[in-house]
């Protein structure tokens, strides 16, 4: 009983802080996207490629969540207006970012000078589905080498996603991945989710994804 | 404080049950290997290929850990002496197998008729590193498409591994993966770890891995 009570308290506290984060972001007209995937699914590459394509159109900040290391923060440093690294190794939930970590990160960022924050969550298809951060949209990347059964095996993260990105399309000729089956599984769990097929390596499909991002940021700005 | 205390209790309880599991296994001269990787890293394929190669030499049982679905259990059913599926979706730690789940699974298995149990952990590089299950050896699979920086970003799971399998070697020509850098990172964290380069698709390198498994099972049996 004790354990369940504690978990519930953590979830409630997380939601309260996430709500506060979103208010802070909205006050500064900053849009935030939470990017989730397995380890090596392509979160950092997507962020780097998105920043390169939206250069001059959006001022982008990045929050990097990793268990350990600053490998990814170094990769995104070049184009970002601001980068904050969060290492979760010694935190109570090392397997996901949580709203309190984002609250600290936002305090370090020049919010008045940012239009969009891309949050790279910890590489994991399970824990991040349980914690909202205050983001406006949730995006899951699923890469071809992981196999087309991931929505069936890790349903929760797909159920709550606003967009699903099928990454590493350049490897399609070398893998047994059934795109139609994957899209069908995602739509079965979440008919509203936008699905993009991209290769962050070759640039294939990146235009559609970037248009979607621009559209989301634009409609958020006019709402305020 | 409360949270930390509860976590500590869970870890302690887990270790106690894991010890009990290992005693039960030893009493029946059953060897157990805990297989961990990211989602889609190749745990199920490794199990299927290992069973096919060791057919007639070892009687193998499988415990399948998944958040949801029985997709993997169905794949291994053919060759296994017994298969138990654990779905962690509604359990307190859905992101990893825990010793108590294995204890229940072992109760369902004909231990007198099994030499080796292959435990497929939940697809995750973080949580499974925190929970021992009662296994004799811990194996991490890291697949080429995940990138060569995984030991740096998820160090804990590599520190405790007895063997590290580099899987999907067939994709090497299409990826930027530095084998020497990866092996160097693993050895830096864990100089004792055996490293195998395999492709579960083409069968490349499977002999070395299977010899290692046979050797481990053999020396365990003579110890008793």
Features:
224 residues; alpha/beta; globular; homodimer; 7-stranded parallel sheet; Rossmann fold; 41% helix
Describe the fold and architecture.
Two copies of one chain form a homodimer. The longest helix of chain A is centred in the first third of the chain and has 26 residues, at 2-27. Chain A has a single domain, classed as Rossmann fold. With 224 residues, chain A is of the alpha/beta class. In chain A, helix 2 (43-54) crosses helix 8. In chain A, strands 3-2-4-1-5-6-7 form a seven-stranded parallel sheet, sandwiched between helices. In chain A, strand 2, helix 3 and strand 3 form a beta-alpha-beta unit. Chain A has eight helices and seven strands, in the order αβαβαβαββααβαβα.
SS-based structural class of chain A?
A: alpha/beta
The figure for the number of domains of chain A is 1
Spans of chain A with pLDDT under 50 lasting ≥5 residues?
none
CATH class of chain A: Alpha Beta
What Rg of chain A, in angstroms, do the CA atoms define? Answer: 17 Å
Give the overall shape of chain A, derived from the CA principal axes. Answer: globular
CATH superfamily of chain A: P-loop containing nucleotide triphosphate hydrolases
Please provide a brief summary of the model.
Two copies of one chain form a homodimer. With 224 residues, chain A is of the alpha/beta class.
List the helices and strands and how they pair.
Two copies of one chain form a homodimer.
Chain A (H helix, E strand, L loop, with lengths): L1 H26 L3 E6 L6 H12 L5 E7 L4 H6 L5 E6 L11 H9 L8 E5 L16 E7 L6 H4 L1 H5 L3 E5 L11 H11 L4 E4 L8 H18 L1
Parallel strand pairs in A: 1-4, 1-5, 2-3, 2-4, 5-6, 6-7
Helix pairs in contact in A: 1-4, 2-8
